[in-house]
Amino acid sequence: MNFRFLFLLFFSGPISAQSYQKLHNKAILVDTHNDVLSGVVMQGMDIEKDLTGRTHSDLARFRKGGVDVQVFSVFCDDRFGKGTAFRRALQEIDSLYAIAGRNPRTMEIVKDPAGLRDAIRHHRLAAMMGVEGGHMIEDDLDYLDSLFKRGVRYMTLTWNNSTSWATSARDETNHAWTVTPYGLTDKGKKIVRRMNELGMLVDLSHVGEQTFWDAIHTTTKPVLVSHSSVYALCPVFRNLKDDQIKAIGKNGGVIQVNFYSGFLDSTYMKRMQAFTASHRRELDSLTAARTPDYAINEYFAHTYPQESSALRPPLSLLIDHIDYIVKLIGADHVGLGSDFDGIESAPRELDDVTTYPLITRELLKRGYSKTDIKKILGGNFIRVLQENMR
Asked: What b/e sequence results for 205-233 when a residue is b if at least 16 CB atoms lie within 10 Å of its CB, and e otherwise?
């Protein structure tokens, strides 16, 4: 009879706010994917101010939620390409450095585990960066090196759009890529090997299955999946199948579970489609303007907040995805990659970055040990970062 079963069998009293908050405060909380740079800062909003009700994130709320390490996503979509995507990446990086420069007592750009520990010791938010989408290096290894020098510590090989050297999950699923075979080209494998040499984590969120397997067989370091969830529980193209999850366990990598309702709840997408279809005139206008799907969903969520909120799944579903990974490959290979400020819907109660302690509460309720909770909240990512930067 294992510890978790005994815990659930005999623990009858409620978990107090003091007990889970105390554990939460002791743990190092790492979120590996937040889109506030591209989704908020680059839209002209100031995260140094209170943006409650308008965004998921701002500097004061990171502290309130106990976030110790935030990996800020450097992102642009497929409307950016040669001549524009790399420049956009630099603009977002410059913005983060500027914010940190104005807030030296509360925030610090970190580039390695030693810097991370130093920032935490001095009660400053350890700000890291990850590039979401290999198109942002514009097929140029020198650009990859430049991003690493600026502090980027992971790169997602693709976003939804494929590159000339790697196919995305969306394109492989929709058979929308004309170059064969799918997966990593020789250049793609060279990029993965260069990332290993630099100490930049290879991020396999968003990539197609063939790209995933080619990368797993190419990398010599543990991989990161910065913001994805479990296909068996929610069968969408962005989630990981069991054989992929097992391969990440064998590789020593870590899967950072995404908070997006559409990646957690298998019924959400159909319900969201019905919701947007009920506002046909606006949907047709947005579609005619070639608005990206993610931007259409964000529009409806902000325009009709009560209807959107009714679609949110329970918080328990997020914990189900964590549970599934733990049961398959162990508690050493799972973490948190919220996708906050890049999603229009998260589970109920997870309203913004201040609500992370509720995840700690729910993990305690499921019978997780304090040691494993600390691994899930951030320890596993830190281990993978250390192994990549040796």
From this structure: bbbbbebbbbbbebbebbbbbbbbbbbeb
